[in-house]
Amino acid sequence: MLKLPKVISVVCGVIFMLAACKSNSGNRARQQVPITDSITETPAVTEGPVKPATYKVFIENSGSMNGYVNVNSAFKNAVMGYITDLKTKDVAGQLNIYYINKQVCPQKENALPDEIKNFFQNLNPVSFNNSGCGTSTSYIPEIIRHVVDSIKTDVNILISDFIFSDADGTSPAYLEAAQHTLKLYLAEALKSQDFATVIVKLHSNFDGKYYIESKRPAVVDFTGRPISRPYYMVIFGKPERLRPMLDKIDFTQYNGYENACYLFPPGKQKINAKIVLNDKIGNFKVAFPATNLVVNHASTGKDRNDDSDKFQFSLAANLGYLKTDKQYLLDVSQYQVPDNYRLVSVKETGPLAGPGLEGYTHLFTLQTTALQPNQEVYIRLKPKLPDWVAASSTNDDSRPADSLQQRQTFGFAYLIKGMAGAYTNHYADAAQFALQVKVSKDEAGKSNSRGGFPWWIVGAIVLVLGGIFIMKRR
């Protein structure tokens, strides 16, 4: 027969084992619920290892591009640096180089390192002319359509000055039509596949003829007295195909980098977020784990007999994937929240954010004076083009030597608005990202809340010990 102390020890061990099994089982059940990053409850997909994509680089070789390749330019150095990084950082499984204007002319298929080096060493107006493509004027929306239509599982890159030009007439008359045409082309392409668009602006010394589009056929020859001109890399690919590049490539390191704009299909990026106790007003318990975004037992200060009728909580989110303008993310007016809530602040966490915020880039604080018994509290970032797009565009390029016009591209905003419009129309009412938090005055989360103690275990121990004591007395 077992002695009483040994019986107690065995019984306690069994009870705690059962408690641990129940707790672990609960955690596993919660972990199997997909974290959502869209108000439409689209499950975030965890991507496995992805085979490196084929990267196809299309360099526009119209006559307006000659000035970028006439000398040892920042253009050639930056583009070669980018293509080199795609290979050396194992981003591209295969790399193909093409010229493009009214047609596509292959230059290097599955280019090897020496072939890439030789290509850029010999990149000049002569090689443009000898490409077999000619250097005729090209219609940018048609070029973009061709590049987008051949994405499939590849990543396609178009490098161009993106000047909308039409030899048949004065270009300003065609700008709005070009915008609508491009919107139509991209919207049609989005019907058959989800793809993202990354627009990178750079600038380079320009040594050649500049064709004044707003005063056609006027031209200014800057040969031998170079000016600075912007150009762009526009990258198309499925989000999961672009992710390795965005993780490994830092565009800011390339000579002449200025800005970037990112157009992603909504709900395709997993957002890591969790409830934190920073700046809280009132009282609440965070349902475990905090990444489930559930707040239980929420109460205002008035519920605790003080003067405050406010309830406030914060959540940390990792927006590292959301490559966009810094000030745009910090502007509370760019977000949508429920009518009874206001977004108090959006802050960058920074390297000294403190324990618990490592791996999270932004801290959101929300407040209400009308706390509901149960509510789905959402945060949505409204789509918006960064301000640099409009600042980089002009309808009057008649003074190309002017310091401001050297940073502007004729008709550029029309083209980018056309691209953005395709995403806005195709993904109607979509946000750049969305998070939602369950806030309840009771137990909406149906899970253990942080700070709660499993008193049922103590009760079970007391009952068992009482039964043993009675049996021993008998």
Brief summary:
With 474 residues, this protein is α+β, with helices and mostly antiparallel strands.
Strand order of the largest sheet: 3-2-1-4-8-5-9
Poorly predicted spans: 6-47, 447-453
Q: How would you classify the helix and strand content by structural class?
A: alpha+beta
Q: Count structural domains.
A: 2
Beta-strand percentage?
A: 25-35%
* Major β-sheet annotation: 7 strands, mixed
The radius of gyration over CA amounts to: 30 Å
Protein name: VWA domain-containing protein
Keywords: Membrane, Signal, Transmembrane, Transmembrane helix
Task: Provide structural commentary.
The structure is a single chain. With 474 residues, this protein is α+β, with helices and mostly antiparallel strands. It is built from twelve helices and 20 strands. A seven-stranded mixed β-sheet has the order 3-2-1-4-8-5-9, with helices on both faces. The chain has a five-stranded mixed β-sheet with strand order 11-12-20-17-14, with no helix packed on it. Strands 10-13-16-15 form a four-stranded antiparallel β-sheet, with no helix packed on it. The longest helix has 28 residues. It is elongated, with a radius of gyration of 30 Å. The relative contact order is 0.14. About 10% of the residues have low confidence.
List the keywords.
7-stranded mixed sheet; transmembrane helix; membrane; alpha+beta; 12 helices; 20 strands; elongated; VWA domain-containing protein; transmembrane
List the helices and strands and how they pair.
Elements: H1 4-31, E1 53-60, H2 66-69, H3 74-88, E2 92-100, E3 104-108, H4 113-121, H5 125-129, H6 140-149, E4 155-160, H7 175-192, E5 196-206, E6 209-211, E7 219-221, E8 227-237, H8 239-248, E9 257-263, E10 273-281, E11 283-286, E12 294-299, E13 311-317, H9 326-330, E14 335-336, E15 341-348, E16 362-368, E17 374-381, H10 387-391, E18 393-394, E19 409-410, H11 412-426, E20 433-440, H12 455-473
Parallel strand pairs: 1-2, 1-4, 12-20, 18-19
Antiparallel strand pairs: 2-3, 4-8, 5-8, 5-9, 6-7, 10-13, 11-12, 13-16, 14-17, 15-16, 17-20
Helix pairs in contact: 1-12, 3-4, 6-7, 7-11
